Amino acid sequence: MKKLFLLMIAVAGLLTTGFGQAKKGVQTVTIKTPTVQCESCKKRIEDFMKREDGVQKVTVDYKKKTTKVTFIADRTNIENVKTAIANAGYDADDVTADGEAYKKLPKCCKKPEDGGGDH
């Protein structure tokens, strides 16, 4: 009985450790970026995100209006990634673009309702 109890504790410990390590590993997420318009938007976001701690790779698809980000989970998280995209001037899922950063975007990178999107 004692051996069974110790075995159960060992298994529980391994499972907990395993899940903890998976969380701290590398994660890839796809974020909706509905306000990206063109190649300039793509370059702007990818360049901006290179400076973010923990971000390893960023791929913007402005035709699908998505941004795929690979990051190290113990150095950043999805909310920080979304905030960084918003700080570059673009909406990211439920995080609205920073107003000042959006104002600084070139005309082609602004929303059509704001006179943008002309390539």
Can you offer a commentary on this structure?
By secondary structure, this protein is α+β, with helices and mostly antiparallel strands. The chain has a domain at 25-100: 2-Layer Sandwich (Alpha-Beta Plaits), CATH 3.30.70. It is 41% helix and 18% strand. It contains four helices and three strands, in the order αβαββαα. The protein has helices spanning 2-24, 39-49, 78-87, 99-103, and strands spanning 26-32, 55-61, 66-72. The chain has a three-stranded antiparallel beta sheet. A hairpin with a 4-residue loop joins β2 and β3 (66-72). Mean pLDDT is 85; it is low at 16-23.
Got a strand count? 3
Estimate percent helicity.
Answer: 40-55%
- Straight-line distance between termini: 73 Å
Strand content: 15-25%
| Largest sheet composition | 3 strands, antiparallel
In terms of per-residue confidence, which ranges show pLDDT below 50 for 5 or more consecutive residues?
Answer: 16-23
Assigned CATH class of one domain: Alpha Beta
Q: What structural class do helix, strand and pairing data support?
A: alpha+beta
Radius of gyration: 20 Å
Spell out the helices and strands N to C.
HEHEEHH
Number of DSSP helical runs: 4
Shape: elongated
Indicate the CATH topology of one domain.
Alpha-Beta Plaits
| Spatial order of the strands forming the largest sheet | 1-3-2
